[in-house]
Amino acid sequence: MLVRMIDYVGNEGGGVRFAAELLTALAAANEGARFEVVSTGRALGAYRQLLQGARVPGVRFTDVPPRITADGWRFDVDEATLGGCDVAWLPWVHRHRVADAYASRVVGSFHDTIVLTEPSLRSIFGRFLADEEETTARWLASGARVVVSSRATVAALGQRFGARPGRFDVIPVSGAHADPASLSDDVPLPAWTAAPFVLCPANISPHKNHETLFAGVARWGARHPLVLTGSGTDLVGSPSALRRYGRALLAALKLAGPGRAAQLREAARRLGFRRGESLLPLGYVPDDRYYAMLRRAWALVMPTLAEGGGSFPVEEALRFGVPVICSDIPVIREHMERLGAHVLWFAPRDPAALASRLAELEGDYPQQKARAVAQVATLRRRSWSDVASEYRDVFAAVAQAAPAAGATAARRA
């Protein structure tokens, strides 16, 4: 069976990481399937780096430029790219459309409805919303199998599009990105990591909710420095720091010049934060350095307003025994229930609630830390092999039911 993975967005948040983890697990099963990654430019480079770095055997990379809409938002996948394989898998369906005639051999991973439903994004993505809504409606009406990672996403798609729950395969993802026992203790870190600090790993898209984060930490008294990691969190707004967003998304988020980074800098200044002292905005941090910092964090705070399948950073912190303070939203409630995890919840639009939780953690820190460390052993495990097994069942069903693959292979560059 030839599985062709197609992705032109290369989202460096959950997208590329999710696809690379799952493809690695699928290839490791060694059950006779062959895999081809089809993309172009920056996105193809990201997949090459991750998959070749992981030494994934038997994966072929093919450079096929897509048809792109004039505004750079949508990628149309044509018949030649979809043909000649048993299953075409799009690990990030957002901003992609597929030829209707080939939909029966397509599996699409639908991650979230954030752009369509989160109020903080509607004004920013305004000129793309109609296109994205139409794209989603086409996927739901097509003959493709659509996989989602949470019941919360099923509910959101049902509410907005009238989609029945049975329309979807629900396959939760894994948060197992790093084994704490396998990480080196030799990663050099700044001197400030020897003292307590609060860590927030989230890009600066408005739905990540840094305004409430800043206001809540300030109300608490910023008693430990607040450390920001993730794309754009250096708060300088430079094109080089933000290029991983991609052309259309960069324009939509207005991150260059007097945009989102400037808004957050000003919000932090008004609240009394001092860069380099009470606020340490680091920007994107490589994995080895990030995990070394996470291991030392006093606490992780996740203020997000919306997610698709849960929160990778929250699960990673839990597996490192780091206390977590988290926004109380349905999808993360579902994620924590699946893990059997304890976190401290706060209403995501209420800075006072966040400040109260920080004070609660500080007032009882030895016991809270001990509880976080103890629960590492009881967290329910879900590996990428588990995820891959469920995806493999979907792929096999599609390959068996779809018309015989045509002879047309993807174009080679």
What does it look like?
The protein contains 17 helices and 16 strands. Helix 1 crosses helix 2 (41-53) and helix 1 (15-29) crosses helix 17 (384-401). The protein is 41% helix and 15% strand. Strands 3-2-1-6-8-9-10 form a seven-stranded parallel β-sheet. A six-stranded parallel β-sheet has the order 13-12-11-14-15-16, with helices on both faces. A three-stranded mixed β-sheet has the order 4-5-7. The protein folds into two domains: 2-174 and 384-401, Rossmann fold, CATH 3.40.50.2000; 180-377, Glycogen Phosphorylase B (Rossmann fold, 3-Layer(aba) Sandwich). The radius of gyration is 21 Å and the shape is globular. It is of the alpha/beta class and 413 residues long. Strand 2, helix 2 and strand 3 (59-63) form a beta-alpha-beta unit.
In terms of DSSP E residues, the strand content is 15-25%
SSE class = alpha/beta
Domain count, please report it.
2
The pLDDT mean sits at 89
Number of strands: 16
Can you tell me the CATH topology of the largest domain?
Answer: Rossmann fold
Task: Indicate the CATH architecture of the largest domain.
Answer: 3-Layer(aba) Sandwich
Trace the largest sheet across and list its strands: 3-2-1-6-8-9-10
How much is the radius of gyration in Å? Answer: 21 Å
The number of helical segments is: 17
CATH superfamily of the largest domain: Glycogen Phosphorylase B
Q: The biggest beta sheet, please?
A: 7 strands, parallel
CATH class (first level) name of the largest domain? Alpha Beta
Low-confidence stretches: 240-245, 405-413
User: What is the overall silhouette?
Assistant: globular
Distance between the termini: 23 Å
Percentage of residues in helical conformation: 40-55%
